[in-house]
Amino acid sequence: MKRPFRTLLCLAATAVGLVAVSAPANAAGANYVALGDSYSSGVGTGGPYSGGSCDRSASAYPQLWANSHSPSSFTFAACSGARTGDVLSGQVGSLNAGTTLVTISIGGNDAGFVDVITTCTLNDDQTCINRVNQGKAFVNNELPAKLDSVYAAIKQRSPSARVIVLGYPHFYKVPGNCILGLSDTKRSAINSGADALASVTSARAAAAGFTFVDIRTIWTNHEICSSDRWLNSLTWPVGESYHPTKDGQAKGYLVALNRVTG
User: Fold this and answer.
1) Residue 247 has what pLDDT?
2) Which fold has domain 4-257?
3) What pLDDT, on a 0 to 100 scale, did the predictor assign at position 57?
4) Rounded CA separation 18/167 (Å)
5) Is 227 considered catalytic here?
């Protein structure tokens, strides 16, 4: 699919690991570049959006961080629907030797969870579980090399930059207060796929010497089927579905990023 994070049935595959224990980045005077997919571009906040099909929002965490920290320079390169290959072929061109801070969320679209959600929506519990397990196999066996390539390209172009890898929240609270929709069995299966992605992403980020931020932690009790969700369920326009709301960007992603940058 051309832009999997913008589709009606999109799982922005959940993941990410460890709210940094390393020293905060030097925010003052930073030359900041934001890379990644729609979770970084800000789809789901209701717009308005800029950057054409990249759908960059003024309510996205990179823009909010830049507004509050006044870096020396800020390049918003994140783009809706991006996969690892898109980062390599285009987004890394925004980096240079003077870049001092990079943020990125990537891997959800590569993992193919659009089809996972579609399968889980249209089929029974066991079919859903089987499809999630297929997705996990990709995450464990094929995604590591893709992430390594992205991280190596970032290091090559910006060897002095602090790189912060932000992941994805759990989609569902299980059990939750949703009356309609997927069963708890399906919700748990989807969340387990997100956990697999988090495990792999955190390991590859650590191997590259990058900081890995666990969005799942701060998102607890704000998933779909919670009483205070920061994630859209099925909504209109459909491209906003299964993406963070303005609260998800400001209270989730931005707060998590501030914890490691000061």
Assistant:
1) 98
2) Rossmann fold (3.40.50)
3) 97
4) 10
5) no
Residue count (the chain): 262
* CA distance linking residue 52 with residue 129, whole number of Å: 36
Single out the catalytic residue among 69, 170, 222, 243. Answer: 243
| Predicted pLDDT of residue 26 | 55
Helix (H) or strand (E) holding 49: strand 49-50
Q: Global pTM?
A: 0.88
Q: Is 69 a catalytic residue?
A: no
In this structure, what are the phi and psi dihedrals at residue 104, rounded to the nearest 5 degrees?
A: -155, 140
Which of 98-128 are b and which e, b meaning 16 or more Cβ less than 10 Å from the residue's Cβ?
ebbbbbbbbbbbbbbbbbbbbbbeeeeeeeb
* Catalytic, out of 22, 38, 53, 226: 38
Is-contact 205 157, C-beta < 8 A? no
* Cβ neighbours of residue 247 closer than 8 Å, sequence gap 6 or more: 222, 230
For residues 107 and 83, what is the distance between their CA atoms, to the nearest angstrom?
6
Domain ranges of the chain: 4-257
- Under-70 pLDDT residues of the chain: 1-28, 114
